[in-house]
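Quick question, first post here. What does this chain look like in 3D?
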Amino acid sequence: MRRVGADYDVLVCGGGAAGIGAAVGAAKAGARVCLVEKYGFLGGAATNAQVLSYCGLFTRAEVPERAVGGVAEEVLAALRDFGLDALAHRSPTTGNWIVLFDPEVLKLALDRIVAAHGIELLLHTRVAAATRTGVALEGVTLAGMDGRRHVLAEAFVDASGDANLAMLAGEDCRVGDGEGHLQALTMPIRVGGIAAGAKLDRGRLQQAIASYNEAGAYPIARTDGGIFVRMPLSGDLWWMAVDLELADLSSASFTRAEIEGRARAHAYVELLQRTQPGFERAYLVATGPQVGVRETRHPAARHRMSAEELTSGAQHPQAIARAAWPIELHGEAGKPVYIHVGGRGYAQVRYDAIRAAALENLWYGGRVIGADVQAYGSIRVMGTAFATGQAAGVAAADYAARGRRVDVAAVQATLRGQGAII
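> Answer (accepted):
Ran it through. Tokens below.
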């Protein structure tokens, strides 16, 4: 399958939901795969930012209807093997179906899935540079604990969330909405030390927030109390109330956000201690290794999904995935806006949305697929990322197997054979 001198058939940048989908999808299609991840664990936002629920796996119907299968279902099955229910739970705040999990269980489950499929995994490794010949990527420079080395591959998938590979390869990238405005950050937190049987009272919390906001150091934008739920295994409270604006993509801005986010987290837990019965001994269990990032760069794709496609539930003959999560916009910190998907409750993602605009052997998965400002609010979530990532990995493997061309119908057939829902 590989050309002479190629180290891999498919190299995947990023080990989040999209990267796992891409690596497993490509490996199951017969490719020799390398998966590169900058952290010391897999999972992406699920484990590096404590986004402890998978969104987008189901439509918003009264009874949960699957919109994503394939690799995502393999991950859920692994979570069940470790004792989690991995069932759909309806969020009382938004009415959408989500799947809760424990981050440490997820890390171990993903390690085992990657190993079971023979994927070469490089943790603590970044893609530092890329080389290209004309309209094709030739190789990438990997920077790891043992220094730098250049590797060659037939095909590549950018599942980095931040378009790191696409940017290094010279693809045009839009920042945020194209005018520099980025969706707000959120730092999900875990709270422990809660008395047995104690529940967070939303009405009481709203009153406490209103009082706190009169003179508190860090006014809480989510005056409704935010999103909170008790987690499996630990029983910790998972709370999304720490919201932050991001001025730009500079390290200085991210540094300020991380520092302020931690200060807010401690202040908000103190608020719970003072105002919520049973929370007197509550404490901050953890923030994530990093703040929760919703948006950075958007690389140019051959098709940009539109808001109209989502609101109408558009279908397409070259579909490779389904997007079922509402358009969720965080243009202002703590003030999310939801616009529901129309039609059958999902829109089909067409093949060209996962193809790089100017490179023939680079595919996108997850947050970096082609989408306009509003459509991005739907396709960015982890459930949908599993699906677009798996499609990108299968397409990349098909390209390598066919001698640098892709048969979209064959990609669709392979995806269905892998249990994907398109």
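The first strand starts at residue 8 and ends at 13.
The two ends are 27 Å apart (CA to CA).
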